[in-house]
Amino acid sequence: SAITSRGLTNHTPPQRTQMADAPKKRSGLAVGLNRGHVTHRLSVPPKISRRKGANTKQNKLIRSVIREGAGMAPFEKRVLEMLKNDFEKKALKFAEKRLGTHTRGKKKRQELSDLVRAMRKKH
Fold it and tell me: What pLDDT is recorded for position 52?
């Protein structure tokens, strides 16, 4: 391959032929496709950080009390008004802009639309 002005080559690495996520059984031999020591996968318990923020009865209660006491953020009130007036897409785009990601925006819109539905059911 040719050397560029910076001294680097225009070489692209070859494509991998084996699937990386499918581990093969090792043979215990030093040569061959399945070379290497025979080993066993350890079963690792899930990290506690994976559970953080999970919905439990106690968490639900605490969050509802805080929501009741603190009320809504101004952007949430605005999204709520949009949902009351059936501007679903506009509400999503606004929530996305304020929260940063599409997934967070969808989650917030769903949460607030459930609130609107509950309010309509009440009356």
Answer: 87
